[in-house]
Amino acid sequence: MPDTPAVPDHPATIGVGFLGAGPVTQAIHLPSLARLTDLFRVTHVMDVDAAVASTVAARVGARHSASMDELLGDPDVDVVAICSPHQFHAAQVIAACRAGKKAVLCEKPFAVSGEEAAEIAAVSAETGVPIIVGAMHTFDPGWLAAEELWGDLPETAHTLRSSIVLPPNARFEDFATEVIARPEMPERDLSDPAVVAAMLEGGILGLAIHDLPLVRRFVPDFTDLEVLRADIVKPFGYVFVVRAGGRTVELVAAMNSTWKPDWTFEAIGRDAALKVTFTPSYVQAGSAVAEHTRGGRTTVGGPFGHNGYEGEWRRIADIVSGVASAPDPQGLIDDLRFALAIVEGSHARVLEAAA
Fold it and tell me: So what's the pLDDT on residue 7?
């Protein structure tokens, strides 16, 4: 009788460990990975709240812990997904690289200063561990279609516009899953300039940052960046007007009880225009749609079968398997520097208005 074939110790799929088990992990990444079980399996969930880690891990049959070191030492974790608060990102990315993992996915922003970003890039180069920043729109097949359609628009566009109108995240999260331990939103005193400055910073680093890498495709040089307007919209939102690289950049967002979400990115030139309409982050409902108009003729790209979150996980699988390269670290640093420059300019605007 022939010998029975040996059973491998682990499946051929890529093991994923999560640092942070909050709403983004629960309502975005786990549903995305549930559609990619031929590529990934969730093997470990870590959260500083052990009860949250245990509950979320149980949903996917994974180990759980309240220790980053325990997760990084887990041999079944090939890729680390960092979904913790912003201030922990840099240290956790560096630790995951030094642990020799196959790749690191970090939610945006992957650092909160240019110095941290440069250190991350250096550690990634030293260890050979690729880093992917979770700017999901750059991985959306609708956006990739826009890149194929836009012709010379990156050189000729004069106005760039990101417009986001959404209900509060909790509404989408509750549709997606039963969220465990959602953080409480504090009351804010909008008469305090420091509070306004912090809210504007949160708007850039928490929401606008989804589209800033798209803006950067049209504004590679932003050494002349100037924030012309920076205002809060109640109950939560913002209006920014920025001049950079000879272009006007408009960033507008409002989160309220609207019945119809809308998320669009536009690039407008003298002879052509591009509009990309994205699905809301928490809606697992397919890709963006790109519309490029020139000379009265509109060419449409999409919709496609998956969104940017699934797209970034597919890219990670390709990177781990060696069929795709990781994003350019310098590009990631420059995207962050662009966001931080807008934050700095908005702080100056707030201080000027309060004077």
Answer: 33
Look at the chain and count its residues.
355
pLDDT, average across residues 157-176: 74
Mean pLDDT, the chain, integer: 90
Given a cut of 80, is residue 285 above it in pLDDT? no
Per-residue pLDDT, averaged over 261-286, amounts to 90
Cα dist. 150→115, 154, 216, 341 in Å? 34, 8, 15, 27
Q: What are the C-alpha distances in Å from 123 to residues 19, 329, 338?
A: 19, 11, 22
Contact 149, 299 (CB under 8 A): yes
Q: Domains of the chain, with CATH numbers? A: 14-133 (3.40.50.720), 138-354 (3.30.360.10)
For residues 333, 142, 210, 150, the Cα torsion angle rounded to the nearest 10 degrees is 60
Q: Is 182 exposed, middle or buried (0-12, 13-18, 19+ CB in 10 A)?
A: middle
Nearest to 111, CA basis, from 342, 345, 332: 332
Q: What are phi and psi of 149, to 5 degrees?
A: -95, -25
Res 6: pLDDT: 39
Residue 116 CA to residue 338 CA, distance in Å, equals 14
pLDDT at res. 25: 95
Identify which of 14, 33, 15 has the alpha carbon closest to the alpha carbon of residue 24.
Answer: 33
One-letter amino acid for residue 95 of the chain = A
Runs of H (alpha helix) within the chain: 23-24, 30-34, 50-60, 68-72, 89-98, 114-127, 141-149, 153-156, 169-176, 193-206, 212-216, 308-321, 329-354
